[in-house]
Specification:
The complex is a heterotrimer of chains A (283), B (191) and C (361).
Chain A: H1 13-28, E1 34-35, H2 49-58, E2 64-69, H3 76-89, E3 92-93, E4 102-106, E5 119-123, H4 137-146, H5 150-163, E6 174-176, E7 180-182, H6 192-195, E8 201-206, E9 211-215, E10 221-223, E11 250-254, E12 261-265, H7 268-274, H8 279-282
Parallel strand pairs in A: 2-3, 2-4, 4-5, 5-8
Antiparallel strand pairs in A: 1-9, 6-7, 6-10, 8-9, 11-12
Chain B: H1 11-27, E1 33-34, H2 47-56, E2 63-65, H3 69-79, E3 92-95, E4 118-122, E5 125-135, E6 143-148, H4 154-162, E7 170-175, E8 178-182, E9 187-189
Parallel strand pairs in B: 2-3, 3-4, 4-7
Antiparallel strand pairs in B: 1-8, 5-6, 5-9, 7-8
Chain C: H1 8-24, H2 34-40, H3 42-52, H4 57-66, H5 71-82, E1 100-105, H6 156-162, H7 190-198, H8 202-213, E2 221-235, E3 244-260, E4 269-278, H9 282-295, H10 311-317, H11 320-328, H12 335-360
Antiparallel strand pairs in C: 1-2, 2-3, 3-4
The chains are: A alpha/beta (283), B alpha/beta (191), C alpha+beta (361).
C-alpha cells in the first residue's frame, strides 16, 4: 500500500503532467534548461527535490528503482529517498545497477555501462553552467540563446595559464550535441566520458532552481578542452582496497592519524559484484 | 446529446504508462512504441493520439484541432484543455485530416525554444525498419521509419523547421495504438 | 583488507527516534498542546503562516510543535503540506479599508479619520525581563475597553492620492502571476515580487530594508500607515456568480510613503512601498514595504545599484525554505567531488614541484 492520503508517487496528476511536458521538451532540445513550476517537496531543497520530482513523474509500478548518492546505495540521503518512493509509490527497489530501470543519482554515474532499458535521473544543485561567471539568470539565458560560451572558454584558459591545468575537477562543463553548454551536475570529471553516446536516457532535475534538462540516448557530449590541453579524467592512482579495481572511481578514507589512507570504490554495487562470493552465501 | 466514451480506466497509471511510451518514442526518434491503455476516443481520433492527449494536455495547454466537435467535446471533458481556433497560439496541435502547414505553428523563441508547439499528427500507418532515414540525438546509427499517409512535402517542410533550431516544433506520429516521435533535433532523409 | 561501513538505514531510524525523544523533553513536565502554542506563541504562529505561505493557525502551531520551535523548519513543514492541497479558486482582492482594526498608526499625520489606535504592541514597553511571568498562574490584567468605531477607515495613501501627491499605480487588469506554479522570470511583474516578499524570510527582508535606510538605495521612507486586524475573505464561485464570505484572516498592512523627484513624464510626488503579510507582523510588513519600494527603482527611472534594488538578487535569495535547504545540503556527503578536488590539487602540485626541480637542476 502507498501512503494514505497521497497520490501514487506523491505528486498530483496536474503537476506530473506539467513535469512530463517539460521532460519531453527537454529531450527534444538536448542540453537546454527548461523552466518548470517545481513544487515544494517533503524533503529539503538541495537534497534532491529536482531528481525526486523527475523520478516521481516517470515512475510506474513496473519500474525497479535504484537510488545512489556518491555512488553508494547506503549513504543516508540515498536511503531516505529510496524510502520515500517505497512509501509513496510502493515501488520495487534494488541495489544492483543491472536490475534497475530507473536510477536516481547524486554525484556519480555507475561504473557498469547503462543500457537502453534504463533511465538515469540526476539530482542537480545548480543547472546553470555559467553561474560562477555570470550570476544573473536573465543574462545567462541570453548567452545560451546566442550559444555564446566565450566566458567559459576564457575561464578554462585562465586556469591553464595560471596553473598549467584546467582546475575544474567536478561539475566539468560539457557541450551537448555541439549546441548547448551544460552542467553535468557535480559528478567527477572522471564520469564525464560516460555521458557521451550513453545508451540510456539521461534526465536532470533541479528543484530549487526550477529547471529540467536532458541528454537523449546516443547523443554527443563533449567535455570542453583545448587542442594542446585535452580533457583528462582524473582518478586517484590506486587500486580499490576491497575489490582491487584499478579503473573505478575511488573514495579516499583516512585510516589513522599518521597519514594512513585507503582507497575503495565509490560505486558500492560495482565493488560488490567484483568480490568473490562469501563462503556462507555460497554454501 | 451523445454520450461521451470514457477516458483512461485508471487515470493515474494509464497516464503514466502512456507517457513512458511517448518518452521512449521521443528519446529514440523513429522507434515505434505501443500505447497499452485501452481507450475508445470518438472517431476519427485513434487510441494512440487519444492517449497522448489525455496524458499530456490540460487546462494549461491551449489546443488546436481539426478532428471535429465530438473529439473536441471528448478532450474538453477529459483533459479540460481550452480549444483555440488560433493555431499559432496552441501548445498542442492535433491534426487528423490534411496536416496544417508547419510554418503556422508556434516555434518558441531563442531564449524559450521549449514554447514551440507539439504536433500530434494522425497518419494511416507506421512501419518499422523501412522508409525515412532518421539520424540525430537518440539514434545510434540510423533509424528507418515508414509513415503511411504522410502529408505531401513534409520532409522538405521539416528541413525548413530545422533551420530554426533550437526553435522548432516536435511531432508525435500516431496510427491505431502505435506512436513514433520526431523531436525537432532529428534529421529526416528520404533515401 | 578494508571492510566497507554500512548502516545508513539503521542510523536514520535511530536518529529520528532520538529526535522524537528530545522534542518531548523532560516527561515530568506536562506536554505542550497545539492550542497552547496557537494562543501563547501567537507571533511565532503568524511568522510561520507568512513564511509557510498558508493561513492556518492550527497547522502552523502544529508545525512549530513538530519542529521543536525551529520556525524555518516549521514554515517548511507547512509549505510541504500546502503544496499537496487542491486549488479551489482565487479570492477577491482584499479591501483593507474594511479591516476590523486592532491597531492602526500613522507616522505622517497626528490625527486622521479613524484615529490612531495603539493596540497590542511591544512599542513603548520597557524591555525589562518580567520575572513575574516566570511564576505561572498569574492573571493578565484586564484591558480597559473603549467604544469601537466600526466604520470603514480610509487609507492614508488614499488621502494623499486624492490631493494628487501620491502616485497611483495603474491597475493592469491582468491576472497576477503565481510563483508557486510558474518559476520566476525577469523582469518580474510587481504582483509576483510582492508575493515573493510576502513569503520571504523576515531576517532577510529586515536586513535589506535596513540597508535602504543606511544609504544603499537612497530611500526616504515615512510610515504612512500600519494597520493590523482581521478581514473577511471572499470568493466568487462561477456557478453562483456572486461573492461569498469564506472566513476571516488576520493581516498586517504597511504603506510606506517615499519621496520621488519626478521624471520627464511625471511630476514630483510621493510613491508607495507596500507590505502585506499574514497575521500580526509589523516588522515584516515594514521591511517588505521598504524592499518593495527598492525594487521599483528601475520602473521609476532611478539608479538600481543597491542590493535591495536588484530584482534577481532579492527575489532569488528571499525564500528561506530554498535557502536553508541549499545551505544545509552542504552537510550531505560530498566525498566524490571532494576527492576529485584532492586528486586535482595533488596533480597540480606534483607538476609544479617537478617544474621547480627541473629549474633547479
Amino acid at each position: 500500500m502507498t501512503e494514505a492520503g497521497y497520490n501514487f508517487a506523491y505528486l498530483d496528476e496536474a503537476t506530473k503532467r506539467m513535469i512530463r511536458r517539460a521532460i519531453l521538451k527537454a529531450v527534444a532540445i538536448p542540453g537546454h534548461q527548461i523552466p518548470f513550476g517545481a513544487r515544494e517537496m517533503p524533503l529539503p531543497y538541495g537534497w534532491g527535490t529536482g531528481g525526486i520530482q523527475v523520478t516521481a513523474s516517470i515512475l510506474g509500478p513496473q519500474d525497479v528503482l535504484k537510488v545512489i548518492d556518491q555512488g553508494a546505495d547506503d549513504t543516508t540521503n540515498a536511503v531516505s529517498i529510496r524510502r520515500f518512493f517505497t512509501r509513496v509509490a510502493d515501488i520495487a527497489t534494488t541495489e544492483a545497477t543491472g536490475e534497475a530501470t530507473i536510477i536516481q543519482t547524486r554525484h556519480r554515474i555507475p561504473e557498469k555501462p547503462l543500457t537502453e532499458n534504463q533511465i538515469l535521473v540526476y539530482q542537480v544543485p545548480q543547472p546553470e553552467p555559467l553561474f560562477k561567471l555570470e550570476p544573473r539568470r536573465a543574462e545567462t539565458r541570453r548567452l545560451h540563446a546566442l550559444a555564446d560560451y566565450g566566458l567559459m572558454h576564457v575561464r578554462l584558459y585562465e586556469d591553464i595559464a595560471r596553473l598549467g591545468h584546467i582546475a575544474k575537477a567536478y561539475d566539468y562543463p560539457v557541450m551537448v550535441n555541439e549546441r548547448y553548454l551544460m552542467s553535468p551536475s557535480p559528478i567527477p570529471a572522471f564520469d564525464n566520458p560516460k555521458m557521451h553516446h550513453m545508451a540510456a536516457l539521461q534526465l536532470f532535475g533541479a528543484g530549487r532552481e526550477k529547471r529540467i534538462y536532458a541528454v537523449p540516448p546516443y547523443t554527443p557530449v563533449r567535455s570542453l578542452d583545448f587542442e594542446d590541453h585535452p580533457f583528462r579524467p582524473i582518478r586517484a592512482p590506486h587500486a580499490c582496497a576491497i575489490c582491487g579495481s584499478k579503473t573505478s572511481y575511488l573514495d579516499e578514507l583516512v585510516t589513522d592519524d599518521a597519514g594512513g589512507r585507503a582507497f575503495i570504490c565509490s560505486d558500492t554495487d560495482y565493488c560488490q559484484e567484483r568480490q568473490p562470493v562469501p563462503k556462507a552465501a555460497a554454501e | 446529446m451523445t454520450r461521451l466514451t470514457p477516458g483512461f480506466a485508471d487515470p493515474v497509471l494509464d497516464a503514466q504508462a502512456s507517457f513512458r511510451a511517448i518518452l521512449e518514442a521521443m528519446s529514440r526518434p523513429g522507434r515505434i512504441q505501443t500505447i497499452a491503455a485501452r481507450i475508445s476516443p470518438p472517431a476519427p481520433l485513434c487510441s494512440a493520439a487519444g492517449a497522448a492527449m489525455l496524458s499530456l494536455a490540460d487546462a494549461d495547454t491551449p489546443l488546436w484541432l481539426d478532428a471535429g466537435d465530438a473529439v473536441g467535446a471528448w478532450l474538453r471533458f477529459h483533459c479540460g484543455a481550452p480549444i483555440t481556433p488560433d493555431i499559432g497560439a496552441a501548445r498542442f496541435v492535433l491534426a487528423c485530416g490534411a496536416a496544417p502547414s508547419l510554418d503556422a505553428l508556434d516555434i518558441g523563441t531563442d531564449e524559450d525554444p521549449q514554447l514551440g508547439a507539439t504536433l500530434i499528427l494522425q497518419v494511416a500507418g507506421l512501419v518499422a525498419g523501412d522508409g525515412w532515414r532518421l539520424t540525430g540525438p537518440g539514434i545510434q546509427h540510423e533509424h528507418r521509419l515508414g509513415v503511411l499517409g504522410a502529408p505531401a512535402g513534409f520532409v522538405a517542410a521539416w528541413a525548413r523547421n530545422q533551420a530554426f533550431f533550437p526553435r522548432g516544433l516536435d511531432v508525435l506520429l500516431c496510427a491505431g495504438d502505435s506512436i513514433a516521435a520526431l523531436p525537432r533535433s532529428v534529421m529526416i532523409a528520404e533515401d | 583488507m578494508y571492510v566497507a561501513v554500512k548502516g545508513g538505514e539503521k542510523a536514520i531510524s535511530a536518529a529520528h527516534a532520538w529526535l522524537d525523544e528530545t522534542r518531548r523533553g523532560d516527561t515530568a513536565l506536562p506536554e505542550l498542546s497545539v492550542a497552547q502554542i496557537e494562543q501563547q506563541m501567537a507571533l511565532a504562529v503568524d511568522r510561520v503562516m507568512a513564511e509557510g505561505s498558508c493561513h492556518d493557525r492550527f497547522l502552523a502551531a502544529l508545525a512549530i510543535k513538530q519542529a521543536k520551535g525551529d520556525l524555518i523548519e516549521a514554515a517548511f513543514l507547512l509549505r510541504a503540506y500546502r503544496t499537496t492541497l487542491p486549488r479551489f479558486g482565487a479570492s477577491q482582492p482584499l479591501e483593507t479599508s474594511r479591516m476590523r482594526l486592532r491597531r492602526r498608526i500613522s507616522a505622517t499625520y497626528k490625527d486622521l479619520p479613524g484615529g490612531q489606535v495603539l493596540g497590542p504592541t511591544f512599542d513603548y514597553t520597557h524591555r525589562l525581563l518580567d520575572f513575574a511571568l516566570a511564576a505561572e498562574g498569574r492573571e493578565a490584567p484586564a484591558t480597559p475597553e473603549a467604544h469601537a468605531d466600526m466604520g470603514d477607515v480610509p487609507r492614508v495613501t488614499e488621502i494623499l492620492a486624492r490631493e494628487g501627491l501620491m502616485q497611483r499605480e495603474a491597475a493592469t487588469g491582468a491576472e497576477p502571476g503565481d510563483l508557486t506554479r510558474e518559476p520566476l522570470s525577469f523582469p518580474a511583474p510587481r504582483p509576483v515580487r510582492l508575493q515573493n516578499l510576502a513569503r520571504g524570510d523576515e531576517g532577510f527582508l529586515l536586513a535589506l530594508g535596513y540597508s535602504t535606510q543606511r544609504g544603499y538605495g537612497n530611500a526616504h521612507p515615512f510610515v504612512g500607515e500600519i494597520r493590523v486586524g482581521h478581514i473577511g475573505v471572499e470568493i466568487t464561485p462561477p456557478e453562483l456568480g456572486f461573492a461569498i464570505d469564506i472566513g476571516d484572516i488576520g493581516i498586517t498592512e504597511c504603506q510606506m510613503v517615499n519621496q520621488f523627484k519626478g521624471s520627464r513624464t511625471e511630476p514630483a510626488q510621493f510613491t508607495r512601498g507596500y507590505g502585506l503579510v499574514f497575521g500580526h507582523g509589523e516588522r515584516r510588513a515594514m521591511a517588505m514595504a521598504l524592499v518593495d519600494r527598492g525594487l521599483r527603482a528601475r520602473e521609476l527611472g532611478e539608479d538600481a545599484d543597491a542590493p535591495a534594488q536588484q530584482e534577481e538578487f532579492v527575489l532569488y535569495h528571499s525564500d528561506n525554505i530554498e535557502a536553508t535547504g541549499f545551505v544545509e545540503h552542504l552537510k550531505l556527503p560530498h566525498y566524490v567531488d571532494f576527492q576529485s578536488e584532492l586528486e586535482n590539487l595533488r596533480t597540480i602540485r606534483r607538476a609544479a614541484e617537478a617544474e621547480r626541480q627541473e629549474a633547479a637542476e
